[in-house]
Amino acid sequence: MEDKTPVISFENADILGGDAVVIYGLDMKVYPGDFVYIVGKVGTGKTSIIRTIIAESPLRKGEGMVCGFNLKSLKNKEIPYLRRKMGVVFQDFQLLMDRSVEDNLRFVLKATGWKNDREISDRIAYVLKAVGMELKAHKMPYQLSGGEQQRIAIARALLNEPEVIIADEPTGNLDNETADGIMQLLTGINRDKGTAIVMVTHNRQIFDKYPGKVMVCKDEKCTLEEDEEAIDLDATI
After folding, report:
1. pLDDT of 100-159, one tens digit each?
2. Could you give the dihedral angle defined by the CA atoms of residues 231, 49, 31 and 26, in that order, rounded to the nearest 10 degrees?
3. Is residue 65 part of a domain?
4. Looking at the DSSP assignment, which residues form a beta bridge with residue 164?
């Protein structure tokens, strides 16, 4: 790993939740091919880390690099270019309910600079096939199950061939069987494409079954836990 450039790097970074610091001195490196979990109780700063990574929250102290962008010096006009290099998957899917699956994906591609209609159609077909949803392009989101909607959200995250996928509780609204399918999909993308994944989860069973690096948020710190068996279960629920 030493000869690789991390896709995400924080050094002694203070993470804001609103106007207050919720995590002090974050040190975190995510390399291509990594699968990193962020776990911790509600209010310990997990989602604040995600918001900092995607430049929703500013980084005021420490160092932060994401997909080649310096978060300390990032200008507002540069934020869309940063976000094109990553895919984001949310717990509540965040699909546009007034348009079809295909039009949801088309909207994102056009918003990120794609202009050729044939290339757009080809890319949509590719990502839908990648998540097993190639027959659902004409459906409206409300016609799909929760698991299917999350697969579409993952397809959306793949559109611009991201360097990293950021997943904030992507299985939180799903039953165990459906969540397992989503985890198989994400770990397959990570394994087959080498796409780094950073995932917030409350579910201990997930990171037990699908191993990765585990960062534990607790007592205003977030640190790498080398021994997963030593993770306090109360810190992950």
Report:
1. 999 999 999 998 889 999 999 999 999 999 999 999 999 999 999 999 999 999 999 999
2. -70
3. no
4. 86, 196
